[in-house]
Amino acid sequence: MASILHVKHEVMDALKTIGLNLYERKLWVALLSKGIATVGELADLSNVPRSRCYDVLESLADKGFVIIQPSKPMRYVAIKPKEALERAKRRLYQKTDEMIKRIENLQKSEMIKELENIYSEGIRVTKPEEFSGALRGRESFYEHLEELLNKTKRSISLLTTEQGLIDIYQRYSRLLQRAAKNGVNIRILAPVTERTAEIAKEFSKFAKIKDIRGLQKTQPISRACSIDGKHFLISLTNDEKTKPSEDVGFWTSSEHAASEFFEPIFELLWKHGKSV
Hints:
The chain is of the alpha+beta class. It has 10 helices and 11 strands. A hairpin with a 5-residue loop joins strand 2 and strand 3. The protein is elongated, with a radius of gyration of 26 Å.
């Protein structure tokens, strides 16, 4: 019988990437090594506390990784890994579809008006500078950037990296074109390299863009932007050295941060950038 202690770290790490927590990973691998087992057997083999095994195995069954055999004592049946993963995938699709339908129903219901009213009342008594927070993960950073870009009325000042320029083009080129047609002044500072030369040309059709490679040691290695001189967003990590999931950013609805802190720096860099 295989011991869970002998399973490669790569295997356990791979199971972590699909959303299984530590106890779920240990119990599933333990069950795979037994085929059919009781809670007591799995607790001993996996080193998971017996008191936690019941709810963790229930979770694995709900996700499609385990079959519960209603006997005394209760036994758990392993599923062939490929089949288990396929079952888990189908259940995830089903749950996602169900949740999307619930969200859409809520959006169409009368309750959304009440929620909007609660938010509006709260906004009235909150100072603009109090709206700030940390953003964990690159996806969260870009989601918040999209929200700000959709709100813009006057100006967008973007400072970004080589990869950031690629990301922004792939995600928001149409959104930015629409903003430009509505009279929004868009300026972009980024390193224009072989990878980004064509993207820079496309941006130049509706925005002003400058190459900052010539800034040498003062060349920024972060992503930041100011929207209408009121909203400020910045990444606090180097996207060349940081995994997307480990990215950390910060945003604030502060005219001081946007207009008096970031924009003077942006203007200085803009002055020394090379037009594309």
